Amino acid sequence: MENGPVEFWVADAEYRHGAVDLLGILAYGALAAFERLAEDARRAPTLADKVRVASMAATQVTHFERVRERLSELDAEVMAAMRPFHTAFNAYHDHTRPKDWLEGLVWTYVGNGFAADFYREVAAFVDADTRALVHEVLDDQGQAEFVVETVRAAIAADRKVAGRLALWGRRLVGEALSQAQRVAADRDALTSLLTGTVDRPGMDLAAISRMFTRLVENHSPRMARLGLQA
Amino acid sequence: MENGPVEFWVADAEYRHGAVDLLGILAYGALAAFERLAEDARRAPTLADKVRVASMAATQVTHFERVRERLSELDAEVMAAMRPFHTAFNAYHDHTRPKDWLEGLVWTYVGNGFAADFYREVAAFVDADTRALVHEVLDDQGQAEFVVETVRAAIAADRKVAGRLALWGRRLVGEALSQAQRVAADRDALTSLLTGTVDRPGMDLAAISRMFTRLVENHSPRMARLGLQA
């Protein structure tokens, strides 16, 4: 327990703004994922798939509720915390509408993977309670496994699927990076969270840029697990 | 604890079939409600409404999962238990597609209310563990309150809304009764659950008919709470 420094951080207004921004992204991301998964559940090819995806959607609501609680411990309101990120998330959604069930699954898998990597990177720079929550929310409870198996089976049944989904995966990462960079540019509080202060560890701007590079690098092994070229 | 008679019931094949039917309806009903609420969340007028309805949708998934567990304690599989009720539920959904957010809320409110009354009636005739689950699943956690407030506010803002929603409520009950009666006619196991046996309490057919009458009678006070004529 690093109780001393943690409380010092949370009392620091600049730190607090950054943490609230991070949690706001996490909350709006969970809602966005819920909406995507709810739509996927609607067009699931079997009732068993529908149940599986509905349960993934429900998990996102639980995440949202946990993040809302943490925000409230930080005296912040979830609706206000999410507001700065509507534009970026909505633009991402508008530019990446899955045309079918498989594209929806890849959307979830790539999006969750990208988000998970980003949160893990950022979590190193937040207080212990917020970090614990971030890790809890990121625990995907075998959901990735379900997507991997389903996509691999679809490719095995029809090789043409692989080319189309590989293109789709590239499009998703390009859009995600573009929106992430827009957010990084717009939100000084979030960037300050990452760069740190004299009293608080952080990354310099070159390190932030390397972080984005790592996010892109991690995309390839993820696509490979699906049986796709990145 | 009435452990003796309860275990006797569950060991009775006829009783068990009826209970599995009831749980199958409960499971498929929860999935159907999830799909309806997920669609409502998509078109919620505000982000706060979206969060509220998404959380209602997630609750339905939790209900589904609890019912699946109980079925598995009865050595039954949820997919098989739901199968006999696809037709009735799907027909109900096809015939009652809400045109907007308010119709969606009334759908949830009337449907949940009707279902809750039905389950409470039937719960008297099942074993204690199943009855406890039915009551747990029916606990609506203040969701009705949210619908009542939202619909009343919409009517206050525009009186014309009341006439349209009253008609809609009548349509919903008519469809629900028609599907419920189809299920009662098709599913001997469920009807046997209600009529009982020498060893197990039940209703005679006239009592079942009175139960349907009570279900319709309860619709009026429910609509009145919304500020609507039944």
Relative strand content of chain A: under 5%
| pLDDT < 50 runs, ≥5 residues of chain A | none
The percentage helix of chain A is: over 70%
- What structural class do helix, strand and pairing data of chain A support? mainly alpha
Largest interface: pair, residues per side? A-B, 22 and 22 residues
Order of helices and strands of chain A: HHHHHHHHHHH
Instruction: Kindly report how far apart the N and C termini of chain A lie.
Output: 41 Å
Per the principal axes of the C-alpha atoms, what is the gross shape of chain A? globular
C-alpha-based Rg of chain A, rounded: 18 Å
Average pLDDT taken over every residue of chain A: 86
User: What is the overall number of helices of chain A?
Assistant: 11
**What composes the largest sheet of chain A?**
none
Assembly type: homodimer
DSSP strand tally of chain A: 0
